[in-house]
Amino acid sequence: MGTKLKFNNIRKHFFGVTALDGVSFEIEEKHTVGLIGENGAGKSTLMNILGGVLLPDDGDMSLDGEAYLPSNPRDAARMGVAFIHQELNLFTNLSIAENIYINSFPNLNKTPLIDKKKMNDSLKSLLKSLDLNYSPSTTVENLAPGERQLVEIAKALHSDAYLIIFDEPTTSLTARETEKLFTILKQLRSEGRTIIYISHILSEVKHITDNVIVLRDGKVTGSSETGSIEIPEMISRMVGRESDNLFPERSSKPNNSPILEVKGLSQPGIIGEVDFSVHEGEVLGVFGLMGSGRTEMARMLFGVDSYRSGSISIDGNPLPRNSPRSCIERGMAFVTEDRREEGLLMNVAITENIGLVSLPDYCRNLVKWVDAKRMNEEAGIIGDSLKLKASDIRRQPAMSLSGGNQQKVVIGKWLMKKPRLLIMDEPTRGIDVGAKYEVYSIMDRLAAENSGILFISSEIEELIGIADRIVVMSQGELVKVFEKKDFDVTALMAAAFREAVA
Amino acid sequence: MSKVDQLNTGRVGSVKIMGRKILLSEFFVLYLTIFYLLVLFPFIPRVFSPYNIKNVLSNTWPLLVIAIGQTFVLITAGIDLSQTSVMALSSIFGAVIMTSEADPVLLSKSPLWGFMLTENGGLFSGSAAALPVGLLIMAAIGVAIGLINGFSVAKLRMPPFIVTLVTQMFFAAVAIWLSKSENIRHLPESFSRLGRGNIGPIPIALIIAVIIAVSAHLLMSRTLYGRRLYATGINPRAARISGVPTARIIIAAYALSGFCAAVGGILYSARLEQGRPTLGNTLLLDIIGANVIGGISLAGGKGKVLWTVFGVVFFIFLSNTLNLLNLKFFVIDIVKGMVILLAAILDVVRSQLALRYSGGKV
Predict the structure, then answer these.
(1) Which domain holds residue A105?
(2) Which residue ranges make up each domain of chain B?
(3) What is the pTM for the complete model shown?
(4) Fewest C-beta in 10 Å: which of A296, A397, B219, B281?
């Protein structure tokens, strides 16, 4: 087996900031290589150089032993390099076949018309080999996220790519879809393709790869066979410090007075008869697979979506069916799953983002004059307490921050309101290990101040690490409640998959 | 590298930085106006004559008031095409209330004839209350049409373009129907003063426009409403989840737009000393054009009153100089259209530059 790809001393700067500081490593042919590192470590920059999106300032690459320097993505594609992005680049309004042939529609007998039949026929066997049982003429918007990803893979295979980059491929997949993806990755490998697999979920990296490359601050800090590196070591190489503890010690215990009480919450087709409560000082974990109704339930609690029946009360006072605003007035807060679309004003200054919820508290007199000075000061204090990494929080827009710091801004805007009950939906998705630890610490601190936290996640490990109790949801119903002493990965999984197990 | 080369690259570098600074400056459109006038000055020296300046300024005030109203709506990522019909309808209603005599030959076919309008004028003909009631009704019409627009957009979730296009057509037609396409004259002297009079050396229209501009500026930049207006324009979903009553914010923006259009209608009607059913029907390009040139983004969330002021001043000078050059009316519109297009392109360039230098991802 030869060397498929070689990076030699790659450097890249953006406006004086070093993104890549002399990266060199090799990838063996027919291997699956995990590329890991915190956000901002340089993974995306390196892959963008490989994919022809960016040019390196210095250094060179070779592919199959020949010098390789793509000047645009089409160059890279021609050389057999395919890049499957985290946010899939599909045209949801077009069919599977049209997406795959987007750059090279076959002509019908030399006319300008497209030969749809040829297009569809040629893809049937390819789709079948990926276990994607749809006609090539199916519109992509009818496909589930996991199936869309298979379309991307089909596109890569169709262009005969022998080096395929996967960037966080499992973030929007269900457990079943993830399993299927792994099967396909193994199949691709056995066909002799080389794969670069980028992920924050280290157990997946451990499971699926042959080698692991660790990046930190634009440098390679680890390169070894997957079999000889354990997850704690991967983490310490990523963050540059020993971290045997992924989770902070909980500093307090919950008491018995309930904050949130939910009784018989139902919305036909989405959730049915959900009952639970969150107590003072408690972190209640909610585990469920995608589509289990956990996100929908959170949205109903916060007045974003409507529900047909049931009651929700905060500190014994029933919550009128209303809007997020009345929930906020009663002390609720909601960190949504989608921080770009529902959490942040991307091109607005960080302090303005943090202050958005609490604005009415900083207003004087009838015309609601905003005391910007006081608001900015207190937003600054919140930012400091969250260890927000920004150069000028009064000017810098939220979009200039890394994912983890963006999430801290979203959390900060709710902390400023001193919430009684904080609902967090996948708060650690797509953020790095260091930022995750800080998010857990914030939860612990808030619980110690007697607030309640409803922590929704699809990562069992973090729920076990931080929650006081875990409720498991499946198909819109609350199937089981686990006390701390009963926490167990297999049992939780089994509860979430109750149909499959039963 | 020789010394001369270094000097040259140094100079080129600093010119580049200067250029970037000017391009990104808040006062960019003002600089552009000054530059434009200096270039044209040798060809039309009349542009700086006291008479012309006075003429330009008197055109500025009503347009400024209306354009500021539009700015509120643009920031919500909407658009208000109905401002011109607000002007026409409020002009007619104001005149019907205030006029002291009406010509039966012209107006007896009006549906209002006989009960709101007679040979002896309107409802408050000759009364001292004519002016305050007239102004109140005019403003109320603006707010009412604005509320209709706002409700349809925010609560019924209809597209702003369609909603306001319909209200534009509908209320402009109502104004023509009510007046049978005739101007209504004989308005009280106290009303005309608003458009033509001075307090000391200062035109009353200027005072009104400045009061509205300053209030709008403070409302947008310093109050809870202003902050929430921008948040709604930038990301309505995030704003709603953060407790912003987005529907009310949007409805208020359209109401303010209607109000400003009505005030503009008052100033124009007062200057013309008549209620005119076609008032404003050619003004839409100027209103939206001035906003776009000023840098107010049609995508919402971006804009300031100061920018609108600069946009209006530029637009008025543009029209004025094109008139002074004795160009044909179609040439004038061609040039105006091209300038708006250019402004839109510049806006894209500027926001990309700003993004790059604020550390955002490009």
Answers:
(1) 3-239
(2) 49-281
(3) 0.78
(4) B281
